């Protein structure tokens, strides 16, 4: 009983620490007006590898990614019952150890969102993210948009050639409930920032490879198990429900795309005052496109660094 009281008393303290911090961080982001103001970004490589238009896009993207990541942060207390939250994280974070995991979601989003603006509080280049336009590890392939390796984030040719809009431009455009049509520059950068360990997450956030009902393509997993990389609206939602409607699947906390899609769904729903969380093919119960189209319209974010611990089949 004693322990339970302590746990309950502890949780609101953590949440109240997030709220004023989010307001300060957003205020700070508004004061950024040139690339060197972004304390978490090292532009050394970008100066040589990216052209000035690309650097402008990245500056605006890294400056605004905090808007996307922080949309849900001021209201975490009641958000556990929000349908968008439940779609991407599952239901049942209301008590005990799961409440701490609930806090982890928002702490991780906060850390990723403010990393470009603030850095991680450390000094020197090793604490910053190198932004690069050169595929120095030869991982850019067709429809691979970006990747992260250590302190380096590479934006691939397809990131530039598909013409993704900026968040603040898209939100002024025509609303849609089709969430997977809403890939923005900032969405992609947030996905990649979730892989940057220097932001200070409790554990490495990867692109989960696992088995999902009705999904069968791509990923190779040791042991000959057919699995998928959990990219896209539909797969992220399936991952959240993998253990049933009432039991959150905590693998979602280690999957970058769950953070990115949750944030985009919440951002556009709030801005447009409609619920934006359906895959393109399932709008309002009718199939409006090819129901078998690849999630994300086939876009992938990265071949992220991964090790044995990140092979997650069967969990
Ligand atoms: Zn990724």
SSE topology:
Layout: H1 2-30, E1 41-42, H2 44-49, H3 52-70, H4 76-79, H5 83-89, H6 96-118, E2 129-132, E3 146-149, E4 152-155, H7 157-161, H8 167-170, H9 185-193, E5 209-210, E6 220-221, E7 225-226, E8 228-229, H10 233-240, H11 256-272
Parallel strand pairs: 1-2, 2-4
Antiparallel strand pairs: 3-4, 5-8, 6-7
Helix pairs in contact: 1-3, 1-6, 3-6, 3-9, 3-11, 5-10, 5-11, 9-11
Zinc ion is lined by residues 191, 195, 207, 256, 301-302, 304.
Structural class: alpha/beta
Question: What is the CATH third-level topology name of one domain?
Answer: Collagenase (Catalytic Domain)
The string of secondary-structure elements, in order, is HEHHHHHEEEHHHEEEEHH
- Write down how many β-strands occur, each being a DSSP E stretch of 2 or more residues: 8
The CATH homologous superfamily of one domain is named: Collagenase (Catalytic Domain)
Protein name: Lysine-specific metallo-endopeptidase domain-containing protein
Organism: Bimuria novae-zelandiae CBS 107.79
GO molecular function: metallopeptidase activity
Keywords: Signal
């Amino acid at each position: 009983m004693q322990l339970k009281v302590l746990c309950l008393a502890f949780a609101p303290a953590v949440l109240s620490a997030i709220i004023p911090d989010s307001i300060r961080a957003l205020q700070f982001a508004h004061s950024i007006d040139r690339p060197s103001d972004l304390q978490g970004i090292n532009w050394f490589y970008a100066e040589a590898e990216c052209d000035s238009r690309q650097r402008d896009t990245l500056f605006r993207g890294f400056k605004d990614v905090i808007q996307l990541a922080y949309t849900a942060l001021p209201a975490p207390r009641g958000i556990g019952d929000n349908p968008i939250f439940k779609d991407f994280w599952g239901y049942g974070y209301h008590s005990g150890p799961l409440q701490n995991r609930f806090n982890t979601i928002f702490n991780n989003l906060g850390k990723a969102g403010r990393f470009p603006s603030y850095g991680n509080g450390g000094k020197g280049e090793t604490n910053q993210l190198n932004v690069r336009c050169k595929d120095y590890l030869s991982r850019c392939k067709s429809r691979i948009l970006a990747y992260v390796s250590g302190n380096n984030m590479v934006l691939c040719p397809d990131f530039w050639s598909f013409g993704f809009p900026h968040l603040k431009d898209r939100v002024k455009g025509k609303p849609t409930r089709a969430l997977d049509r809403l890939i923005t520059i900032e969405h992609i950068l947030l996905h990649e920032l979730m892989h940057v360990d220097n932001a200070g997450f409790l554990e490495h956030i990867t692109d989960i490879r696992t088995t999902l009902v009705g999904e069968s393509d791509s990923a190779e997993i040791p042991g000959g198990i057919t699995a998928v990389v959990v990219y896209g609206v539909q797969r992220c939602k399936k991952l959240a429900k993998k253990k049933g409607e009432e039991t959150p699947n905590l693998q979602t906390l280690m999957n970058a795309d769950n953070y990115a899609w949750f944030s985009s769904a919440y951002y556009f729903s709030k801005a447009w005052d409609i619920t934006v969380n359906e895959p393109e093919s399932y709008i309002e119960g009718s199939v409006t496109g090819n129901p078998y189209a690849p999630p994300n319209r086939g876009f992938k974010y990265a071949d992220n660094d991964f090790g044995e611990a990140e092979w997650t089949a069967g969990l």
